[in-house]
Amino acid sequence: MKHRVVGLDGWVQPLPLDFEHDIVIHDLTSPAQLVERIKDATIVYTANQRVTREGIEAATHLQLINCNGTGTDHVDKDAAREHGVTVTHVPAQNTESVAEHAFALYYALRRRVLQAHEIVMASDIWPVGGAALKKLGPPTRTNSEETLVVVGYGALGKYVEKTATALGMKVLIAERKGATVTRPDRTPFDEAIKVGTVFILVAPLDEHTRNMIGESELGAMDPTALIVNVGRGGVVNEQALVDALKSNKIGGAATDVFETEPATKDNSPLVDPSIPNLLLSPHIAWYSKRTIDNTLKIMKSNVENFVAGKPTNVVVAGR
Questions:
Q1: What is the tens place of the pLDDT at every residue in 162-200?
Q2: Do residues 299 and 90 touch, judged by C-beta distance below 8 A?
Q3: Residue 209's closest CA among 242, 169, 184, 237?
Q4: 77: how many CB neighbours lie within 10 A of its CB?
Q5: Cα 76 to chain centroid, rounded
Q6: CA angle (140, 145, 146) in 5-degree steps
Q7: What is the value of pTM for the model shown?
Q8: Which of 3, 4, 74, 283 is catalytic?
Q9: Rounded CA gap, 267 and 253, in Å?
């Protein structure tokens, strides 16, 4: 059969596919445009655009949804399963890039890079004896004084652990929240929350991780602790994080991911310049040449393998 391939968000142009097909790639797809754009599709590419139950049910010829990244929470997997639609993803294609971005955010927070830049740019602070140090606040920690807690222990979590260990940090791997048994290489979640001085979150978003870090967890942390989220928005309760930062319950936070994306002042409490010690980046931790090269190769192989009857990187098995 001749496949109809539709890309919902054209952040990159996919590599040519070696089977008979037509292809249309859209730069962006709004929720209101979804049904019309995929109603005749047999294969859909999506990076971040949501594929809802409504869209899946309207797409009566749909066979495959390929998520062009690790996460699949933007696809209604229950609907896909019910309608026999296969869902595939691109696992671990951005491990190095995302880990490096996480540590870039960490150092920017811990070393107060933006504040130091502002001190120099102001021109009237640095020349005054001791004023620069007063502006920066209390002395910071070095790597050997940090206890870094990794939350989420897939390929990315393991790479974060490796990097942090090489930097001289003490590293703990948090057990799943609410787990009744602690595995030998893990630290109970509640204990990790109390002893960590840095938390790098690389967990996926699901029913077990949504709002995993909330008011009680933030209140139990060391008041100098830093949180860096490069996993998924919604793992940290955004309003609770704002409240913790404004009341100095924690030392700072940085996030590359948001509960609603793109994040704006209208849909996220984090997009507020008055929040102290908060760094934001627009879901770009993945952005590197290696990530793009890896993603394109796996996108191509996922789709071609599916058409050949040998699907790979399957999250939901269709008919």
A1: 999 999 999 999 999 999 999 999 999 999 999 999 999
A2: yes
A3: 237
A4: 17
A5: 18
A6: 90
A7: 0.88
A8: 283
A9: 19
User: Rounded to whole angstroms, how far apart are CA atoms 245 and 218?
Assistant: 9
The answer to whether 183 is a known catalytic residue is: no
The predicted-structure confidence for 41-94, as pLDDT tens digits, reads as follows 999 999 989 999 999 999 999 999 999 988 898 999 999 999 999 999 999 889
Which one is catalytic: 57, 96, 100, 261?
Answer: 261
pLDDT at 240: 98
In the DSSP assignment, the letter for residue 190 is H
DSSP secondary structure of 281-306:
--S-TT-SHHHHHHHHHHHHHHHHHH
Catalytic site includes residue 261: yes
The verdict on whether 283 is a catalytic residue reads: yes
pLDDT digits (tens, 9 = 90+) for 144-153: 999 999 999 9
Q: What is the rounded distance in angstroms from the CA atom of residue 134 to the CA atom of residue 68? A: 46
Tell me 212's DSSP state: -
pLDDT of residue 48: 87
* Amino acid at the residue 314: V
Element counts in the chain: helices (H) and strands (E):
11, 12
First-residue to last-residue Cα distance in the chain = 16
Structure tokens at 303: 């789709």
Q: Which of 101, 232, 238, 259 is catalytic?
A: 232
